[in-house]
Amino acid sequence: MENDTICAISTPIGTGGISIVRMSGSNALAIAFKIFSSKNVSQESIKPRYFYLGNIHTADVNEKCMMVYFKAPYSYTGEDLVEFQCHGGVLVTQKVLQSLIESGARIAQGGEFTKRAFVNGKLSLDEAEGVIDVINAESESELKASYGLLKGNLHKEVEKLQNIITDILSEINVTFDFPENDDEEVTSADVLEKLTRAQKTLDHIIKTSTTGLKLKTGTKVVIVGKPNVGKSSVMNAMLGTDRAIVTSIQGTTRDVLEETYIYKGVKFNLIDTAGLHDSNDLVESIGINKAKEILKNADIVLFVVDGSQELDNFDKDIIKLLNDKKVIVVVNKCDLKQKINSSILPHAEHMECSALENKGITEIKDKIYNMVIDEKVLSQNVIITNIRHAEALSKSNEIILRVITDLQAGANLELVSLNLQSAWETLGLITGVSGTEEIIANIFSKFCVGK
Amino acid sequence: MKIKGYDAIVIGSGHAGCESALALARKGISTLLLTLNLDSIAFLACNPSIGGTAKGQLVSEIDALGGQMGINADKATIQRRMLNSSKGAAVQSLRVQADKIMYHTYMKETLENTPNLTIKQAEASDIIVKSGTVKSIKTAQGEEYECKVAVLCTGVYLKSRIIIGEFTKNEGPNGFSNATYLTKSLLKNGFKLMRFKTGTPVRIHSDSINYNILEVQKGEDNIQTFSYTTKRAPKNVADCYLTYTTPVTHKIILDNLDKAPMYSGIIKGEGPRYCPSIETKVVRFSDKERHQLFLEPESMSTKEVYVQGLSTSMPVDIQKQMVHSVIGLENAHIMRDAYAIEYDCIDPTQLYPTLESKKVKGLYFAGQINGTSGYEEAAAQGLIAGINAAQHVLNAEQLVLKRSDAYIGVLIDDLVTKGTNEPYRMMTSRAEHRLHLRQDNADLRLTEIGKKYGLIDKNRYNLYQKKLKQIDLLYSMIDDKYGTKSKMAELFKSKNESFSTNGLTVREALKRSSITIDDILEIVPELSTFPYDVLKEVEIQVKYEGYLARQQKQIEQAQRNENTLIPKSIDYNKIKGLRIEARQKLDTIKPMNLGQASRISGVSPADIAVLTVYLKLNGKNL
Asked: Which strand (E) or helix (H) includes residue B611?
């Protein structure tokens, strides 16, 4: 049944200006002309990759739209593919889709377009995973990283690393296979030296991976502070016009409000402990454990204090929770007379602001941005936005670090080469050398309809 | 008049042919062994040695499966050494100097005394195939033998030609005559042939060597034998010597390069990278001041000495100058000249992993005709082809060893999946599971399989079971504490190993890299009632425990693809999404399972993914 014709709405559901309905399969063109007519073109005369203006008219649709046809194999899926660009709106596009189904297409399953593209050899494993990221990309930086992956930059970098290890492995193995060879045998010291260099490269790639994943999921910025220091005002000021989608978070953290803003193309999730205002005792109101839990997942903590008052025991309780965290101390209400005894504040960056007068807010956002995003990293093409890649890299890094330790402890090269071999194979997971079955299953379960 | 009465015909009596014929006959198949020359049975045409890195493993595997090479090599051993003994268990390999005359004699004797086996000197000239199945073999002498299966083990004899400078002659190794007819028959039957090249150095008279100025290389005692049936280990009765080329040697070669057939264009065949002629070495590694040479005695009953490392196809006068420029060989008398030899072989991707050809049913191929190099590689294939040819006659299941079972599995999988463009030599680097594929555990890995395929007799099987029991018994004892506490503690201390007083067991001691089983035997004498191989086995297993467990996990992961079979009826042209190159390759190789498919060059992970999806969707209907 790989050739039946599938269709789906490819644009996000909502009220955009234009919606795209896409159809792929051997009957795509025939089905299209059952509902589409134009005085300019017929099923016989249609040219691939030209836009045609016409009408979709069925029992309950009469809609002006554009149609474009991609002939197999020169399409995204590698099959005959038709796209309709019609007016946006849930109702209209749903009806167009309904007509296509009544004319012989069936609704696509999640990820099915990309699955077909993949099965038809249009995408490599790496690229297919890159596509998932493109689908999910919500901000510019993330998109940039995704496209980098599509072009195979990661593949190239990992291949380079693999080649270094290939070299080391061959130098070791030659001593096993040709023991009577009188060339100087590679020593543990040589291997150690080369491997240490390789590990540095790997380390660098992995560092970028953290950033990449942050770009993808958004950086968690948690706002804490006792009641009435102006947490909500700070949050609102920061969201300002950059405010994005409002999400309410389910489950144990339902007391917590999370909103997203995009700054310089990077996504930040701002989390306010909004539900915690009622009690005067923070520790009592949520329990020390819950507070810790919220803070545990924070990438950055904004500790808001009131500059016009002295710090009290409540502030001190919060300070105790901030050990080992990346903290920015936001001294709010800088427009008022300052009474704060800043000597007991944590050793962290202090930013003064007035949420009320919108003073110092941009500086805070810049500070957060710089703490997360290494500009150098962003300007490079290799950014890892995929958890599987990041995992493979850190696993091989782990193995290589173990090999380095083994070598330093005087392990024999035979075992070293075996471990290196598995590091090599782990890197191969990124380039698609092995482990196909599991990856495919994973990819297809992750795909959304359309691109 | 066709001659009836033989179910199987083996063509060629080299190392592949002998194993093949013995396996067939021992499995009760009435077998005819055709050979160009009875005096060339199991002839060691090049090195007078068996084993070496990875090859030693092959020999032990052949032995565990019920083959002959290990037994024969043990009997003919005149010197033995364990290579890589300082480098860890997995890469250790036994290498012996074999008496080439005795090796031939013992093997011939074995063949002659094997029931169901008939040996005949005659040149096979034509393979008669009807409706895709082998029917009979014709000889140049004018006879025709009917058969159900045939195994082709022609070695380097197919249309072979030797080359010494400008002198060339259509003959086989060592002046034996070559096989002139079979090439035509193979082409007629649609086989794709290749032309490979190899070579052999001079043999010199022992009395003309100045041993006094050379470094001697002695054999080692107390090391394992190839066969686990060998009761008394052979003695080291011969020595090898180490010498070097000189700047003069290199000058002679460079001055006369225009006379080297390798460079003048006379030789066209593909030579092996790992066994280059001395002229190749000197040209390619010009910064090397000297090249190492080994002097190896050929037999206790001849004065001929083999000069390892001095392979050449230079004219004889240059050869003489070269030899005389080597340290210790100033007055050496060359008894046999070095020569290069070219020969026809088949592209092994025309075979299934059973070594049966895809084109002709019942026709098996083994040995150098499949593009390999080396006695051990040949014998390993001969054994498998023999077993499978017999299974074919018996209409029983074919034997395919996995890459995780044996080096033999790696060898055959590589050959039939990837093919080769030079004579293929086994190496430890080729085996991804080499920690598991050790020489010491070949019997533990393969005896059960050997038994299933009918080549393990009661005696061998009992030996194997006894070993298993002893290993179990030893395991039950190593967690106990032996001797006085202080002795074990002393041992740890003397080796600078850390310990806790409640961990002073044999197992804990063996886990330490610097403590060996020999150290332990000294303070725990009650363990010396165990055979040494059992002690060694447990030592290795304990020492490598973590690594072995990890390897086992990898093997199990690999098994999933190996166990996804691809039906023979699959039509790759019907699978959308396979790239054209992959489609063609898959159709040519006809892999038996997804694992094999994934190893074909030109088949990408994406293609495998497509194939996986296709098999999942359509597997049941194929």
From this structure: helix B605-618
Q: How high is the mean pLDDT of chain B? A: 92
Indicate whether A2 pLDDT > 50: no
Long-range contacts of residues A181-186, Cβ cutoff 8 Å, at least 24 apart: A182/B291, A182/B292, A186/A413
User: Tokens in use for A351?
Assistant: 């930013």
Answer whether residue B271 shows pLDDT above 70. Answer: no
| Alpha-helix residue ranges (DSSP H) falling in B524-603 | 532-543, 545-563, 580-589, 594-598
Cross-chain Cβ contact A434/B612 below 8 Å: no
A180/B294 CB distance under 8 A: yes
Determine the average pLDDT of the residues in B595-613: 78
DSSP secondary structure string for all residues of A198-218: HHHHHHHHHHHHHHHHHHHH-
Domains of chain A: total = 3
Angle subtended by helix axes B545-563 and A413-431, to nearest 10: 40
**What pLDDT does residue A121 have?**
67
A278 touches chain B (CB under 8 A): no
Does some domain include residue A135? no
The nearest alpha carbon in chain A to B512 belongs to A411
Residue B300, number of CB atoms within 10 A of its CB: 12
Is residue B607 within 8 Å of B579, Cβ to Cβ?
A: yes
Contact B335, B205 (CB under 8 A): yes
The vertex-A54 CA angle with A48 and A60, nearest 5°, equals: 125
CATH number of B203-341: 2.40.30.260
| Chain Cα centroid distance, residue B494 | 42
Least confident of A44-58, A350-364, B598-612: B598-612
Average pLDDT estimate for A152-160: 74
Which pLDDT value is given to residue B475?
A: 93
Domain spans of chain B? 2-197+343-452, 203-341, 470-548, 564-621
pLDDT, one tens digit per residue, over B475-529 is 999 888 766 667 888 888 888 887 777 678 889 888 888 888 999 898 888 889 9
Q: Does residue B94 surpass a pLDDT of 80? A: yes
Residue A250: band (very low, low, confident or very high) from pLDDT cuts 50, 70, 90:
very low
Q: Least CB-CB distance to A125: which of B560, B579, B609?
A: B609
Provide CB contacts within 8 A for B259, sequence distance 6+.
Answer: B165, B166, B314, B315, B318
For the stretch B362-375, pLDDT in tens is 999 999 999 999 99
Structural domain B564-621, CATH architecture: Orthogonal Bundle (1.10)
- Decide: A16 and A10 in contact? Cβ < 8 Å: no
Residue among B424, B411, B406 at smallest CA distance from B368: B424
Q: How far apart are the C-alpha atoms of A4 and A373, rounded to whole Å?
A: 46
Contact A119 B613 (CB under 8 A): yes
Task: Look at strands A300-306 and A327-332 and give their pairing.
Answer: parallel
The class level of CATH for B470-548 reads mainly alpha
ipTM over the 0.85 cut-off: no
CB within 8 Å: B53 and A170: no
- Cα dihedral sign for A315, A316, A317, A319? positive
Indicate if A205 and A222 belong to the same structural domain: no
Is the CB of residue B600 less than 8 Å away from at least one CB of chain A? no
Tell me which chain B residues have a C-beta less than 8 angstroms from the C-beta of A26. Answer: none
